Amino acid sequence: MNVVKGLYYSEDHEWVKVEGNKAKLGVTDHAAHQLGDIVYLELPEVGAELSAGDVFGVIESVKAASDSYSPVSGVVTAVNEELADGPEAINSDPYESWIFEIELSDASELEGLMSAEAYEAFIAE
């Protein structure tokens, strides 16, 4: 499994890439492999306020449908509309296929997430 250094990771297999006071979020390579072929992705609404742990959408694959949880709090500032028409991009390039961007309301929440090394150990268990 591919784990990218410099990102934050959640136990729900989301990644967070921080850029100033905003962050892009997506699904890890591990999750994409576990899900199988992704066929549908429900995107959050721009302007939606999310708290850490809130469901932001649903990912459906040929195997299952599962809720996706935001690992950080804030306001959704952008969504990746390309994934609405081509959610399978997550399977081919999960770290470039960001799902949404959020303006962080509490950057200290990042401290509760895992580093790349910690996430690698987590998925190896």
TrEMBL record:
It comes from the Bacteria. The modification N6-lipoyllysine is found at residue 63. Its cofactor is (R)-lipoate. GO terms for cellular component: cytosol; glycine cleavage complex. GO terms for biological process: glycine decarboxylation via glycine cleavage system; protein lipoylation. Signal peptide: none annotated. CDD domains: GCS_H. Keywords: Lipoyl. InterPro entries: 2-oxoA_DH_lipoyl-BS, GCV_H, GCV_H/Fam206, GCV_H_sub, Single_hybrid_motif. It holds the Pfam family GCV_H. Binds 1 lipoyl cofactor covalently. The keyword Hydrolase does not apply. HAMAP family: GcvH (MF_00272). The glycine cleavage system catalyzes the degradation of glycine. The H protein shuttles the methylamine group of glycine from the P protein to the T protein. Belongs to the GcvH family. The glycine cleavage system is composed of four proteins: P, T, L and H. This is Glycine cleavage system H protein. It comes from Acidaminobacter hydrogenoformans DSM 2784. The gene is gcvH.
